[in-house]
């Protein structure tokens, strides 16, 4: 376990789900009575009966409160791990820190905090960070504090403040994990955040994967324990446990798209559809399972060979487009692709063999017989190598030339060493090269490649043994009739070729 703390409640009044202590229930009741739905229900009731309701709630609320923010920590397998909580000082992250501290002994993990000051809100932001550090110091929680300049980074990289802040924040999370200061990082995303993300992605024209929502377990050790917890539950938890927090004034700034959605749009939807959030998440859950099925089907439909991804022309258009995105990601293009690129690849299906299109970051898509193949071209390198025995690495291939016994001619390419001119060289193909196949018949090398259905994209990178424009050996493919082994052969040379590991 990385060094952290297990929490022992002392000067702060705390509550764990298994050891509830009575707290300011009247504060909760006041909040409930301010709620429109609650008020409408209670309005017809007489004052006398209303007092009984209040009394009953004061008795039973503490009993039920264990379930207010009951997070299933067991599924995250935190035993003997150090959990770093991403803490901004706001209500959500402070409640998550408090909850994880309270439950640290029960689940046998330790806790540290990470705070990132984004440089957006000036002195106010600095004060929030000081608040977090002070809280952690009072409760014996190690706190890793960082300062970044989000506005400068956003301007330099042409990102929104939200995008830049997330990028820098997660870079710090991963760095903290990689440096061994924690095992996982827990963020305070809750159910409402998930719904907002789904709607934002939908409004921006996202594909199916965008409306799947936020995952509880993100790649590289990021977890979201509160993802199924409602904001109202977090508020109740904060009141019942006296969890202090600060308020980010930009949360009320509707110039930010997410804030506009949360403040102006979602409340209006809830007035008509009270179960709106649950419905969105139910929809997202259905999409997630169907998307997982399609993703699995897409991967099984593609073939990866020699660093290229093969997309069968026979794929249904929906799967073909998904396969294109899968191929782009496999080749390192994670985000900088657009629908126009996917459409451009799909258009190749209707063109002649050998047609191609160039995609971002040097990726090429080419139609090859029954497939569209996406790959990154290899840069040709190296001068011609004089013919001799030995081993070499040429481009993506490791080749060897060696003498073998005439009696040992099994699988492989073999030539009569005495028929190979001393002026022969190992190189790539050139324009005007010709090849004489077994049994006679000389043709252009490109035509021979076509007969053998060797893809255009590979032809330039296959090593050959040549004497002037006459090709004697095509490594990994064939030996010319001019140097074939016969009954008079005394020196047998084997030409081997395999893809570089």
Give the uncertain stretches in residue-range form.
6-41, 59-67
Q: What oligomeric state best describes the polypeptide chains here?
A: single chain
- The structure class reads alpha+beta
What distance separates the N and C termini? Answer: 37 Å
Helix content: 25-40%
Characterize the biggest β-sheet.
Answer: 7 strands, mixed
Q: Helix segment count?
A: 16
**Would you report the number of β strands?**
22
Averaged pLDDT: 84
Radius of gyration: 33 Å
β-strand amount: 15-25%
Shape: elongated
What does this protein look like?
With 501 residues, the chain is α+β, with helices and mostly antiparallel strands. Helix content is 38%, strand content 19%. The strands form four sheets. Strands 12, 16, 17, 18, 19, 20 and 21 form a seven-stranded mixed beta sheet that branches. The chain has a six-stranded mixed beta sheet with strand order 3-2-1-4-6-5, with helices on both faces. The chain has a five-stranded antiparallel beta sheet with strand order 7-8-11-10-9. It is elongated and about 110 Å long.
């Amino acid at each position: 376990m990385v060094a952290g703390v297990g929490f022992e409640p002392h000067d702060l009044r705390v509550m764990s789900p298994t050891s509830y202590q009575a707290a300011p229930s009247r504060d909760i009741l006041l909040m409930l009575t301010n709620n429109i739905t609650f008020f409408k229900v209670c309005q017809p009731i007489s004052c006398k009966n209303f007092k009984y309701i209040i009394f009953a709630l004061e008795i039973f609320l503490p009993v039920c409160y264990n379930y207010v923010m009951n997070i299933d920590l067991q599924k995250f397998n935190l035993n003997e791990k150090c959990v770093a909580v991403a803490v901004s000082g706001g209500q959500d992250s402070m409640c998550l820190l408090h909850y994880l501290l309270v439950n640290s002994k029960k689940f046998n993990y330790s806790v540290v905090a990470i705070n990132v000051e984004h440089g957006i809100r000036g002195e106010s932001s600095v004060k929030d960070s000081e608040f977090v550090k002070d809280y952690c110091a009072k409760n014996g929680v190690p706190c890793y504090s960082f300062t970044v300049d989000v506005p400068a980074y956003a301007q330099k990289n042409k990102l929104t403040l939200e995008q830049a802040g997330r990028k820098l924040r997660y870079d710090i999370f991963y760095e903290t994990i990689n440096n061994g200061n924690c095992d996982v990082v827990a963020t305070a995303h809750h159910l409402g955040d998930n719904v907002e993300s789904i709607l934002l992605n939908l409004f921006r024209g996202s594909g199916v994967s965008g409306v799947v929502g936020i995952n509880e377990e993100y790649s590289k050790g990021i977890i979201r324990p509160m993802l199924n917890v409602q904001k109202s539950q977090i508020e109740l938890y904060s009141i019942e446990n006296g969890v202090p927090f600060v308020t980010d004034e930009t949360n009320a700034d509707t110039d930010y798209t997410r804030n506009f959605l949360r403040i102006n749009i979602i409340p209006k939807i809830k007035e008509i559809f009270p179960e709106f959030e649950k419905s969105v998440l139910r929809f997202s859950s259905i999409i997630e399972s169907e998307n997982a099925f399609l993703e699995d089907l897409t991967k099984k439909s593609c073939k990866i060979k020699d660093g290229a991804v093969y997309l069968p022309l026979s794929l249904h258009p929906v799967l073909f487009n998904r396969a294109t995105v899968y191929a782009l990601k496999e080749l390192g293009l994670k985000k900088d692709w657009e629908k126009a690129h996917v459409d451009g690849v799909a258009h190749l299906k209707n063109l002649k063999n050998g047609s191609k299109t160039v995609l971002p970051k040097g990726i090429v898509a080419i139609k090859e017989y029954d497939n569209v193949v996406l790959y990154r071209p290899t840069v040709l390198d190296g001068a011609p190598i004089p013919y001799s025995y030995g081993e070499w690495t040429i481009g993506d291939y490791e080749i060897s030339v060696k003498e073998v016994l005439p009696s040992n001619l099994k699988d492989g390419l073999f030539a009569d060493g005495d028929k190979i001119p001393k002026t022969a060289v190992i190189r790539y193909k050139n324009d005007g090269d010709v090849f004489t196949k077994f049994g006679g018949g000389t043709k252009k090398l490109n035509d021979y490649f076509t007969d053998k259905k060797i893809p255009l994209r590979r032809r330039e990178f296959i090593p050959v043994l040549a004497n002037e424009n006459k090709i004697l050996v095509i490594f990994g493919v064939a030996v010319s009739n001019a140097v074939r082994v016969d009954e008079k052969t005394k020196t047998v040379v084997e030409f081997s070729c395999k893809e570089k590991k």
